[in-house]
Amino acid sequence: MTIEELRIRIDELDRQLVELLNERARAAQMIGRMKAATSLPVYEPDRERIVYANVRAANKGPLPDIELTHIYERIIDVMRALQRNELASQRQAQSAAQEGGAPGHAAGEDAPETGKKS
Amino acid sequence: MTIEELRIRIDELDRQLVELLNERARAAQMIGRMKAATSLPVYEPDRERIVYANVRAANKGPLPDIELTHIYERIIDVMRALQRNELASQRQAQSAAQEGGAPGHAAGEDAPETGKKS
Predict the structure, then answer these.
(1) Considering only alpha carbons, which residue of chain B is nearest residue A47?
(2) B100 burial via Cβ count (<10 Å: 0-12, 13-18, 19+)
(3) Complex ipTM, two decimals?
(4) Which pLDDT does position A9 carry in this prediction?
């Protein structure tokens, strides 16, 4: 394989990674909505420990666990931010509804903080 | 879907992500070896720009481009470190061979800096 062919393969892998990351983000958003309904906190250290353990268990290399963990710290940071936005827009919508505010800007799928090209 | 079901799905997505990240790492390592042979630098800003553009073009959300870029900055950092290690162990092997050193510790697939459970 030439460098050029390997790069074509990397670009293909990146497109698959982007799709999986977005699918993971969608699941995290859904959990965020459920947390809003049940008053669960966004930050759940026990759950995060399970995520890291699962990632290390699935790791067959060549990435060392420590480097994979570095990547996952960033992934989890981003997902947590997404969930916080989801929660915030849910609560905004709830308080607007309670105050009988104008429903002109519905929260949820199209919240500007979380939605992209939605 | 319950939170529990969504988490099972996330764990499954994470295992797929780990596999793709390792496949990407293997390709980066192979490129590292080729760079050692051709004296190309590890850091190639033009190539990195292409990677980011590809990632943004593939992004259909809900992750905003900026958050996806945050994750990719970490991925690229890790891959660059892996390539540097690959290059270093290649060069070590080359100079050991030139000096007629003991071939007891061959560089490559099993280099301790890069290999994991190899």
Answers:
(1) B7
(2) exposed
(3) 0.81
(4) 98
By the 8 A CB rule, do B80 and B42 touch? Answer: yes
Q: Report the pLDDT value the prediction gives residue A99, as an integer from 0 to 100.
A: 84
Q: Taking the domains of chain B in order of start, what are their residue ranges?
A: 3-92
- Sort out which chain A residues have CB atoms less than 8 A from B70's CB and list them: 74, 77-78
Query: Count of CB atoms within 10 A of residue A95's CB?
Result: 10
CA B47 to mean position of chain CA atoms: 14
The tokens of B108 are what? 């490559």
**Residues A64-116: tens digit of each pLDDT:** 999 999 999 999 999 999 988 888 887 888 888 888 755 544 444 443 444 44
CATH superfamily of A3-92: Chorismate mutase (1.20.59.10)
Facing residue for A68 by CB, picked from B2, B21, B77: B21
Q: What is the per-residue pLDDT for B81?
A: 93
In angstroms and rounded to an integer, the radius of gyration of the C-alpha atoms of chain B is 18
Query: Measuring CA to CA, which residue among A68, A43, A41, A47 is closest to residue B71?
Result: A68
Contact A115, B58 (CB under 8 A): no
Could you give the CA distance from residue B114 to residue B118 in angstroms, rounded to a whole number? 9
